[in-house]
């Protein structure tokens, strides 16, 4: 970032309370409010660009767990219905859900379906 020439500017307004909170955080981090806001924006942009989804790390962790649980419960009920759920089958499903969580998440969240989790265009 320091080697890049910054030629574009973005400005925005915040409430007094938000400004106080930003200044308080900056006191701890040693950044200026401008640098902190720039870094926060670029961090959010990286999340959106890398994943194609606009989620914070906490939202992503929760969505991963919900996706895995939905996968496991759905497949477990299917196997129970045909009387084929064995400890070995359960272990295979559990491992599959861990190894393929990104693919499972993509199947559960079609592009543009949920506000805040839409793909970047």
Describe this structure in words.
- The chain is an all-alpha fold and 121 residues long.
- It has two domains: 16-51; 57-108.
- The protein has helices spanning 16-29, 33-51, 57-81, 87-99, 101-108.
Average predicted local confidence, pLDDT? 84
Please trace the helix and strand order, writing H or E for each element: HHHHH
Q: Write down the overall geometry.
A: elongated
Rg estimate, integer Å: 21 Å
Domains (count): 2
Helix content: 55-70%
Strand content: under 5%
Classify the secondary structure makeup into a structural class.
mainly alpha
Largest sheet, in brief, is: none
CA-to-CA gap between the ends? 24 Å
Number of strands: 0
Poorly predicted runs: 111-121
Please give the count of helices. Answer: 5
Task: Give a quick set of tags describing it.
about 120 residues; mainly alpha; 2 domains
């Amino acid at each position: 970032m320091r080697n890049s020439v910054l030629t574009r500017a973005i400005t925005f307004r915040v409430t007094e309370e938000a400004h106080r909170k930003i200044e308080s955080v900056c006191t701890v981090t040693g950044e200026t409010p401008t640098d902190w806001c720039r870094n926060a924006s670029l961090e959010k942009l990286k999340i959106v660009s890398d994943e194609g989804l606009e989620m914070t790390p906490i939202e992503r962790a929760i969505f991963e767990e919900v996706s895995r649980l939905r996968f496991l419960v759905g497949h477990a009920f299917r196997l129970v219905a045909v009387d084929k759920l064995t400890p070995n089958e359960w272990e295979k499903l559990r491992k599959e859900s861990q190894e393929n969580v990104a693919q499972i998440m993509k199947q559960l969240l079609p592009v543009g379906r949920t506000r805040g989790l839409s793909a970047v265009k």
